[in-house]
Amino acid sequence: MPLLSSPLHARWTRGREVMDQETLATIEVFDAAGANRLFVEAERRARSLGTHRRSPDCAILELPPLSSAEAVGWVRKTLGKAKRPEADERVLVSWDEKNAVRTMWGTFASHWPSFCRPGADDVVVIPESRAWVLFHHHDERFYLG
Q1: At residue 13, what are phi and psi to the nearest 5 degrees?
Q2: What's the mean per-residue pLDDT of the chain?
Q3: Quick one: average pLDDT of 10-33?
Q4: 3-class SS at 22?
Q5: Using CA atoms, how far apart are residues 41 and 126, in angstroms rounded to an integer?
Q6: What stretch of H or E contains 74?
Q7: Which has the higher per-residue pLDDT, 57 or 78?
Q8: CB 56 within 8 A of CB 134
């Protein structure tokens, strides 16, 4: 589905977080079937992290709101050198069974607040390599494993 015809388009073209055309071009919207498949996988991966209970395989960050740079810094530090995402690494971002995109980690990291809106969005981010998973809960808790 083209980004222009997606309900997600307004997220990055209106309000405080307006992206330029070059950045928008890095975002590919999943069709309904693809979004649903990713949502099922994302939910399974989020549950395996222990997002509703403490898990030794899961780092948890409960925040006052952080800047994009601070949040990304926490992800990079927690993952360590072996799993640390590079800017051009492709990641899959799922909000629900109807809305998902593929983009680059650099795009996600630079525009964190427009992907993970406090009080509104539950978001799961998974690299195409499936090496880790990041779950952002709408109450500003992050789970990473």
Answers
A1: -125, 0
A2: 78
A3: 86
A4: helix
A5: 10
A6: helix 68-83
A7: 78
A8: no
Task: Round to whole Å and give the CA distance between 69 and 75.
Answer: 10
Residue-wise DSSP of 33-71: HHHHHHHHHHHHHHHHTTTTS--TT-EEEE-S---HHHH
Largest Cα–Cα distance of the chain, in whole Å?
Answer: 42
Sign of CA dihedral 112, 40, 25, 4: negative
Number of domains, the chain: 1
Q: Which two tokens stand for residue 141?
A: 């808790």
Q: How confident is the model at residue 36 (pLDDT cuts 50, 70, 90)?
A: very high
Q: Which two tokens stand for residue 28?
A: 């590919």
Asked whether 57 and 78 are in contact (CB, 8 A), the reply is no
- For 27, the domain range is 3-144
Q: How many Cα atoms within 13 Å fall on the side-chain side of residue 98?
A: 3
Q: Which residue has the tokens 């949502």?
A: 39
Secondary structure element (H or E) that encloses residue 105, with its range: helix 105-110
